[in-house]
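Students often ask what a holo structure prediction actually looks like on paper. The answer is less mysterious than it sounds. You provide the chain, you provide the ligand, and the output is a string of discrete structure tokens encoding the 3D arrangement of the protein together with flavin-adenine dinucleotide.
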Amino acid sequence: MTQAGKNVFVASRLPKRAGVSGWVATLAPRTPRPVLNGLVVADLAIIGGGFAGLSAARRISRLDPSVRVAILEAGVVGEGPAGANSGFIIDLPHEVASDDFSGESEARFRQSVLIQRSAIALASEMAAENGWGKEVFDPCGRYSVAISAEGDRHLEDYAQQLTKMGEAHRLLNGREIAAVTGSPVYTSGLFMPGTIIVQPAAYIRAVADCLKEPVALYERTPALSFERLGTGWLVKTPQGSVQAAKIIMANNGHAESFGFFRGRLLHVFTYASLTEEFDPSRLDGERKWAATPALPMGTTVRRIGTAGGDRILVRSRYSYNPGIEISDAAIRRAGRLHDGKFSKRFPMLSGVGMQYRWAGAMALTRNHVPAFGEIERGVFAACGCNGLGASNATASGIAAAELALGHSSELGRIYARLAVPTALPPQPFTTIGAKMHLAYREWSAGPE
Ligand SMILES: Cc1cc2nc3c(=O)[nH]c(=O)nc-3n(C[C@H](O)[C@H](O)[C@H](O)COP(=O)(O)OP(=O)(O)OC[C@H]3O[C@@H](n4cnc5c(N)ncnc54)[C@H](O)[C@@H]3O)c2cc1C
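The corresponding structure tokens follow.
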């Protein structure tokens, strides 16, 4: 992972937008923070203004408010994956670890919960401090919903594991989940109260906008390269540079664009569509709910009720794109799939069209560990956050901030014990394997 001896790291590519996120399009415009012009001297530079980068900045400012931080975000805050996701900040792992839930898998479960709840604690602290409303940050919990006998079984198994772990939950039968969703197709549901549901673009903007001096955020300011300068680093951007003792790389899969974790990150995109507004009387059930699928590769659905009308979000489909970019045609193809999922679940909304479609990049690792740690002297990575990226990337950002500042915590000790991401097979085997694996898992999710 490290490139010992190298003094200059140059970005071979920068993030590209993939469609127009409905979350951003339906918010009031926000004036981005300025582009970096000229030289700025800071204690720490953070590359990337998503969950990991902004959470790292927040944690640093709590640990030591005198630390000067310069955050460089290539695009506009909210327009990247952190603002384009489905908005679930989840506290519990998605998958049942094993049938018998042995001591080892129980320890893994508890560790995962501790990581995710550390993220939720940080987010909740900011929400309380800044008085964010429920339209931004809603601790309302989530449903996991089934649409098949296999999905029902999965939810029942998972509920049993949650009982063993002492985690609160409630199983709902078909009638009960229909009373929530208004959809006749769901056969059962599992409610888990610990998830935070956010309007992701509003949330990540709010996190950015509550950061105070001496934390400075520069938008539309990609880091193009960084090089050693004395005992620290000089990060170059199109119109300026940051001289800093330390760097936190919080640019997820684009860590690889600087040469780090090469051949160890799987660049996977997922896709979303958001309907136009519809008259709430057309759909029974509650006006606001959020549901992940019973099987992990299935379809996430949310209903968002606002004064102007309601909308449905559909998130489904994964694709492997090692170049970290996708075409408009890929978004259109996923959109056709979304239309089918939507009409199956909500036949009563026939004629309601999708107004926005988009996609976003995630970075996964083969052994499901983050790409984390000190990767060069004074350069720390908080990348490759796998599934549950909202909570995992937030936690990685916190842990990277603590590591950079030499602060010790339980979270930091967990991160210190994590394995490094394992190497992927050489090409073309990774591409073939990843595509087959995704196709198989999507097929296994069946109608879910
Ligand atoms: C449609 C969709 C739905 C999803 N739903 C969920 C969900 O409900 N819950 C969940 O937990 N996860 C979800 N995810 C995954 C989640 O959004 C990601 O895992 C998460 O955003 C990762 O956070 P991050 O901060 O590590 O990276 P990102 O959010 O990708 O942030 C990295 C930032 O780095 C910037 N950057 C890259 N290169 C540079 C550079 N050279 N210089 C400066 N800046 C740079 C990028 O512009 C970007 O803003 C979803 C993803 C998508 C696409």
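The mean pLDDT is 94.
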